[in-house]
């Protein structure tokens, strides 16, 4: 989709861009989010701002190197440890002691806001490095967060190069996770590294986090909160291209399992085809999706299709000459911030039951709705929240224009901090393209710019001396 003409972000499309051959478009969050407001403009960069920007600029090469090492690690679900090892090493280079926060299945499942999961999380860890306050400790504390997990790059044959081998060309770094969101981890670590080179200390703790399972549950971020990591605000460096997210939808993952009756394809009269029945369920769920998009509440009313239903996986049948006796389809659907996840689950379960109700072949075994993965509410933070205005102000001083405030049709870990710990949380990160797609890439100058704004924001939010 394209935002209206007057709602184009000026983020990294402006003259401050050190452009390569391929300059990013003016709209820095196309397809991921829609602008809902412009933050107020602010004054000029102060002398201290220039010092911070310069010190962080000097870390550009370090950030690219760290990002490349991180992209080289194939940190898909269950294989995050290689990436966390790179993060630990980088934290030590900065001078922060990495602390492992292991995933504890029992503790996660005991929390009302967890997302259900059927895989083993034993041995998986989140990594946190804390920059402790110096002599002064009257500031506001902060969590800077990124996730190390990435989605699968399949089908790999569509990639020109190995998706897990970082490749730099014309100021862009390519590879799975380059955008979503290892570039953000590079920016937050680079910001802290630059500030520390200036010999500064924060007036409150700054926790730098690399979490797991943002792409499927949010339980990694939840685990850090359960381990005691909370702060006065959280910034997640997701690649929204310099825009600040103030609203996000919720996301529910669910599976519908159809039990049919297998039989020989040549005598299929008695058999019940589970795959064909699954297609009926998909059709019924499309009607629910259409209904949810009928009259979206603000700010999603500016969006042509805010609620996406994705048919993401299908498993059924094992032989062309056998009528499939079982089929399970995996879905992702979004929900508005004012909706309860449980209400959406109820609607889905009723709809699936109704779709099967007039079919005698399914009477004995009605379709089952199962939950495994995201059970995430939507989340909003006020446009005038001190977190938003302080971050906007730092951005506006650096770029000379205020940032876009956006609503996104995806979920992020921001809602975990908001919902579980009552912390204001936003996303703010580099300019990137093709997240979850083929040829995923990040514009490297935007990583540095993100880090510079982040550095100025840390000073404004926490205090530095
Ligand atoms: Zn992400």
- Summarize model confidence as the mean pLDDT: 91
Helical proportion?
25-40%
Largest sheet: 6 strands, mixed
Principal-axes shape call: elongated
Describe the structure.
It is a single chain. This protein is an alpha+beta fold. Helices cover 32% and strands 21% of the residues.
Can you summarize this structure?
The protein is built from eleven helices and 21 strands. With 465 residues, it is α+β, with helices and mostly antiparallel strands.
Task: Give the helix/strand layout.
Elements: E1 33-38, H1 47-57, H2 60-71, H3 81-94, E2 98-102, H4 105-110, E3 125-131, E4 142-147, E5 167-169, E6 172-174, H5 178-197, E7 206-211, H6 219-226, E8 234-236, E9 244-248, E10 250-259, E11 263-264, H7 274-292, E12 309-316, E13 322-323, E14 326-335, H8 341-357, E15 368-370, E16 375-376, E17 379-380, H9 386-399, E18 404-408, H10 414-421, E19 425-427, E20 432-433, E21 441-443, H11 444-462
Parallel strand pairs: 4-7, 4-8, 8-19, 9-18
Antiparallel strand pairs: 1-18, 2-3, 3-7, 5-6, 6-21, 9-17, 10-14, 10-15, 10-16, 11-13, 12-14, 20-21
